[in-house]
Write a structure and sequence with these properties.
Elements (H helix, E strand, L loop, with lengths): L7 E2 L9 H7 L9 H18 L5 E5 L2 H12 L5 E6 L2 H12 L3 E6 L8 H10 L5 E5 L11 H8 L5 E5 L11 H4 L3 E5 L10 E6 L1 H8 L10 H8 L10 H17 L1 H21 L13 E5 L6 H10 L3 E2 L1 E2 L8 E5 L6 H17 L8 H10 L3
Helix pairs in contact: 1-10, 2-10, 3-4, 5-6, 11-14, 13-14
Length: about 375
Amino acid sequence: MMKTLYKFLLAPGPTPLPEEVRLEGAREITHHKHPAAKKMFRKVTDDMKWLLGTKYDSYLLASSGSGAMETAVQNLINTGDKVIIINAGNFGGRWVKINKAYGANVVEIKKDWGDMATPAELDAVLKENPDTVAVFCQLSETSTGACSDTEGFAKIVSKTNAILVVDGVSGIGVVPLKMDEWNVDVVVGGSQKGMMLPPGMAFICMNEKAWKLVENNKQHKFYFDLKLFQKKLVDNETPWTPPIGIIYQADKAFEMMKAEGLENVWARSTKLAKGIRTAMKAMNLELFAKCPGDAVTTVKVPDGVDGKKVTSVIRDKYGVTIAGGQGDFTGKIFRLGHMGYMDMYSELACLAALELTLKELGHKFEIGSGVSAFMKEMAQE
């Protein structure tokens, strides 16, 4: 077989890094208390407002996105507080685990993986539980590729005393999010997906309604104590050593996103996702999510094909990294990302490699059908 010279990363995180971002990461590190570093910290913090659609500051954390999720629960929820969690996948389940770890009274709106709750369902559960303190959901459920009507959830929750906490890890910078306009109270996220950055930086942003819960929170905390972050923010610092290298890289990533325009970034992901979904159908494959989102496309492994080999063969033989299923769906689905530094050529390379992989593993379809369907979709205005 011909040797593959290029490697492509199309997993739903971490995602590829633009050359400008990689080169910035190669520079000498700047001490985080240097005036230049403080200036960069403020610049990136202000750019976060643009990304999230908010007037509120983000608190930058040296952690993964899960650290930001824990920060939200630890600072907002007291032991015994009632919370409603939309659990439709691995990361909805993570909200459940974190809340239970901190003693919350958890009410789950549990959906099958690939499905998603509706605002009407949330409204009904909220009316049954008027003492709810917070509602937790995903902007994009990475494990299933399912869409989420975050705007619809926010309309419901904003009419109550509860707050809405959104895990935006795989959706921010990929699909629309307008925090203030939609009345979303808290957003958490991470650097390694739509932001085109390495893993290692997370963030949490919240409005005044949510901050009142922080002020009244009684949980024991140390590293993720947001009151400490608030005190340090006025000096453009964090309580602990920040991920200063990633902060400098974030400046380059924001420069690129602003040049493209945020709505154009969202539109690029939408167009790529639509093209991939069209290609999957042309290849006699079935989508997994009932309401597919634009951050990641999840596909059922066809009958007679070893699902674990799909991800290993396409990676080891054809140089393309995609993701398999998680939990009970390991070996049953595979996932293709459309987030961050991806365009139609990277997706096209993935499709060509996927066709070769599935043909080798015995799936019956016309070779070239997916590539052709994708290109026809890309040709549409």
